Amino acid sequence: MLSKWSTKRNKSKQDGDKMSRKKYTFSHEVEPVVSKEDMALRQLKAQVKNLMKPEHDDHYMQTWLKARSYDVTKAEQMFRNSMAYREKMKVDELIDKYTPPEVLQKYLTGGDCGHDKEGSPLRVELFGHLDIKGLMFSAKKVDLEKTKLLRCEQTAKDWDRQSKKLGRRIHGVTVIFDMEGVGTRTLWRPGIEMYLHLVKMLEDNYPEMMKRMFVVNAPAIFPILYKLCRPLVSEDMKKKIHVLGTNFQNVLLQYIDASELPVFLGGKLTDPDGNPRCPSLICQGGLVPESYYLQNDTVANNLKAANVSKKLELEYTVDRPDSILRWEFKTEGYDIGFGVFRKDKDDAVTEVLPVERVNSHMVPEDGSVNCDQTGTYILCFDNSFSWARSKKVFYHVEVLANETAHAEEIGWIENQLTGLAL
Which residue would you say has higher pLDDT here, 360 or 403? Predict the structure, then answer.
């Protein structure tokens, strides 16, 4: 009797379970959760669909979002600005129709020489061999821009070839930024401004292009150069920069096969004639001959002006040792004498650079001195040899303190420069 009742009870329970399951069974599937990154991508594509081209796939569109930390509004504006700029510069036609001026082909340093171990292009920049002043005097700004854009377009074509060859998406560039030969002449203000302008132009139009950068042969003035470039270095970009000393070869070979790395950087790659610097692939730069110089008067822009009858002395206070005092100037029509002096607290004056006549009316003059001692530095424009004829001088002077803008930057640079002592 008990067994029979138990059987009925179990059957009743089973029927109830079936009904219960039927009651709570849904006929539709639950949609997967969409990440905020995917939502941002969908939104961006919807807002710029009128500008998108067939080759603008999801990976490409995500680079714009990454460059603006997935702020869709900022990414959209960046994308629209870039598309307008590409149209203005006719970027899509550069590879087929644009040939850089001879001076840029011969003296604009750098070049691609192979690929890293992941298949991305390897670019070598010889910053210490770049005569940016000579190039600015010899080429129009638009040609400097177009030549840099052309190189980026060629890199994009290389990505396509590598992707097909390796069967996976290839993107980004590994950059070796060689600072061998960098000195205070590199601190010429218009040159740095032009270089930073070109860097910003590329970042605005080729987001996330740089995968990593190795700074090799970093000089003692690297912290000052970094301070000048800091406005363009985002936190994400900073993570990609690795500052090395002179013993950098082992680090490079962790990312680049020796067969793809030039001999002068610790690899095995040479030109067909055995040249270890691979000039057929990497433009070596050097001083631009004055025969290439164009006639222009743009250097006087944003410079102060003064008339010098006999002598003009400009005083600048240097309160931190190892700072750099730099200047640039030009004169109208005639030469002028120029020298630098230091005045101590007791008013004793010491000659730093002797006064010499310079042809600043022909080629703008620029230079700098390392201020190893504090004090008042005097820049002297001397026209005493021609007092009957006053001279008009256009000038810019500044003191670069040997420090960085923020305390956290000091720690980062010190960590990065550890290899310099090796």
Answer: 360
